[in-house]
UniProtKB/TrEMBL annotation:
The keyword Repressor does not apply. InterPro entries: DUF3782 (IPR024271), PDDEXK_10 (IPR012431), Restrct_endonuc-II-like (IPR011335). It comes from the Bacteria. The keyword Magnesium does not apply. Keywords: Coiled coil. Residues 40-74 form a coiled coil. This is DUF3782 domain-containing protein. The lineage of its organism: Bacteria, Pseudomonadati, Nitrospirota, Thermodesulfovibrionia, Thermodesulfovibrionales.
Amino acid sequence: MQTKLTKEEIKRIIITELPKLLKRDALTREYISSLFKEKFADKKQTEDRFEKLLKELQEQRQEWNKRFEQTQAEWNKKWEENEKKWAEWNKRFEQTQAEWNKKWEENEKKWAEWNKRFEQTQAEWNKKWEENEKKWAEWNKRFEQTQAEWNKRWEENQKVINSILEEIKLLHRKHDTTIGALGARWGFRAEASFRDAIKGILEESFPVKVQKYLAKDEEGMVFGRPDQIELDLIVKDGEVIVAEIKSSISKGDVATFLRKVRFYEQKEGVKLSRKLLISPMIDNAAKEFALSSGIEVYGYPEEVEFKEIQSSN
């Protein structure tokens, strides 16, 4: 039984045996050659084709040579023109460079002169600065000496001033004590004189009676301790006006006056019709407190009006 060969086996046999067969058998060579003639040209045709191709290549080469020579001529012309331009530019550059070199040399000379002048000026200023430093040192020394002298004088002067101030303070305290005593004496005398004067004026000019009210406050209602209470009263037909006459009045004096009024009204069972404060010196706080408490305030006795008392006659 014969074994069937595969395509690969047949291909391998042809590749191995065909070259050997072509060498031994002329008939096989002719057969193979006839097969290739249908696909490939023979020697003559191939040579003709090569000659034609070579001729075309030669013509193309000649054309390219011609075009290259023309192009080269054009580039040579451009290069020559460019060389001329470069020669001109080099000439101009050399001229410009020569000018700049000349200017640079002149500038260097100027810088050398300026440096020389600067060094001279700097030397002069250094000398002046050293002289100035010496002067400042002398002035500082003199200033420190003068300042030390002035500080010493100032301390001595301060001691004298402090001594004078202490003496002034002592005198001031003495004057305050003396003036306070004089003021107190004057106040008491002025108030007593005014009461005597107002009593004489009222009793002579108006049908009223002025009297001093004295009573003992056993419970300390007015001063917080038992004390004698004194008030000046103006009386007419059963109507009573209370008046407080002082050289100066403070807010505390107003409060004390109000307590005296309450003491009188409670103790005597009499409602006072008017409450008067008469003083040439009364501060704003005391005046506001008095007015808000229903008290009439007068700076001088002449300001007091008794129209109500006069009309009731």
